[in-house]
Amino acid sequence: MFSFATPNVYQSSKCFATYGVMSHLEPGQLPTKGKPWSALLAHDFVHKVDLIFPEELLQVVRDKITGDPSRAVPVFHKVIMRLAQVLEGDFFAEYIKIGNIMMLSEGRIDSDNVFFLKEGVLTLYMDKETYERAGLVGKPHGVKGNRGSKPRWIVQFDLRSPTMLHGKKGFDRLVYACKNVLNTPLTWLFHNLSKTHSPGPISQHYPTTYTSSPSISEGLAMKVPPLKPPPAIISSQNRLDLEEFATDIYEWLSLVRLGSPRVDVNDKVDPYLSCYAVPGEMEDGRKEKLCRISWEGFISPNWTQQTLVDVILALPSKTWFSMSVTSFSRGIAGDSADFTILRPPSSPGEYFLWDVKKHE
User: Fold this and answer.
1) Whole-number Cα distances in Å, 57 to 183, 212, 324, 341
2) Do residues 155 and 138 touch, judged by C-beta distance below 8 A?
3) CA nearest 345: which of 264, 233, 249, 212?
4) Positive or negative CA dihedral for 140, 141, 147, 148?
5) Bridge-partner residues for 292, per DSSP?
6) Could you tell me which residues come within 8 angstroms of residue 127 by beta carbon, excluding any fewer than 6 positions away?
7) What's the CA angle centered on 307, arms 92 and 347, to 5 degrees?
8) For strand 121-127 and strand 215-224, is the pairing parallel, antiparallel, or unpaired?
């Protein structure tokens, strides 16, 4: 029998690159099916969103995206609660049975007892000892043969089900486990997806409130590679050439997001220290001033979906932009899922999509 290698930061994550044509967008109608929308909505708990575009479009973005009073800025809370308190009183009735929230507890899925709540579904990741003491019905977590010497278990409850009420056998068993086994106070991130601005039951637990205000970096003088794939690559459907082009552009976009000096127009690093060169710098590369806007916090995928739609509709169709979405790492450090979309210049409706999957 062969064993699987334990996931670590030295393993390469899986990246799926797609080049396609986007369907027509209608204001007020959010698309959900097909790429890139299905890939974007698959990122459940978003930690950071980056938007990159030419600086001459900054005023348009300020008027229609960051400065539009009708667009809600993500607000989230950090609160210390026991799991049982999520299932009690007004918190359970208003936020779960009636409203819509998402919550994520502290910890790592591969080593700690971690809980999260989304769309009314409570998901519990537990070690074997805790799982057996809790007396709940679940299933082993991970690929068979890849569970190691410390197997972990996953249990899920649809709290919006009519059977999830006090007095029902299954729900009472969950409440008993939360009060007697899963009773450690945890730090949670809390985001209310319902359109209400009242403090609500969360105020009883003295939360700390945060606002994901946009951070704007302008006047970034960068070396910009050709962002539109050569027609010969698209017409011939040469997989290797398209893969090389997609890899080069994704690397450049990642360096811009990081604020790396390697893509700065004035960068003169010793080649002994870094051999990176902007793709096409000697042939078709150009110098351009860019702007980067970042939102960071505990952000819902619905907000990122609305933001992408608004950006597409706000910017001129022949201009390029890139938007990246990074989810929370719930396993090994630095292992986050990532979504990056690029609309090439002079290519209305076309897009490049990089969908990076984290280790399972």
Assistant:
1) 51, 22, 18, 18
2) yes
3) 249
4) negative
5) 52, 217
6) 113, 150, 152, 153
7) 150
8) unpaired
Residue 244, amino acid: E
Q: Before 36, cis peptide (omega within 30)?
A: yes
Residue 115 to residue 241: CA distance in whole angstroms: 43
**Do the strands 46-54 and 350-357 form a parallel or antiparallel pair, or are they unpaired?**
unpaired
Contact at 8 Å (CB) between 110 and 122? no
Model pLDDT for residues 67-122, shown as the tens digit of each residue? 888 888 899 999 999 999 999 999 999 999 999 999 999 988 878 899 999 999 99
**Joined tokens for residue 39:** 């890939």
56's tokens: 């001459």
- Specify the length of the chain in residues: 360
Strands 101-105 and 114-118: antiparallel
| HSE, side-chain direction, 13 A CA sphere, residue 45 | 22
- Quote the CA–CA distance of 349 and 54 in Å, as a whole number: 18
Q: What is the pLDDT of residues 1-42, one digit of tens each?
A: 334 455 554 455 788 888 888 888 877 778 888 889 988 998
Handedness of CA 54, 210, 340, 263 (dihedral sign): positive
DSSP 128-164: HHHHHHHT---EE-S-TT---SS-EEEEEEETTSTT-
Strand order in the sheet with 350-357: 14-21, 350-357, 338-343, 321-327, 46-54, 286-299, 215-224
Q: Strand ranges (DSSP E) for the chain? A: 14-21, 46-54, 75-81, 101-105, 114-118, 121-127, 139-140, 152-158, 186-192, 208-211, 215-224, 286-299, 321-327, 338-343, 350-357
Q: Are 292 and 260 in contact (CB under 8 A)?
A: no
Residue 295, both tokens: 């939102």
What count of other Cβ atoms lies within 10 Å of the Cβ of residue 101? 21
Judged by phi (left if over 0) then psi (alpha if -120 to 50, else beta), residue 237 lies in: left
Q: Which of 239, 318, 272 is CA-nearest to residue 56?
A: 318
**Residue carrying structure tokens 């044509």:** 21
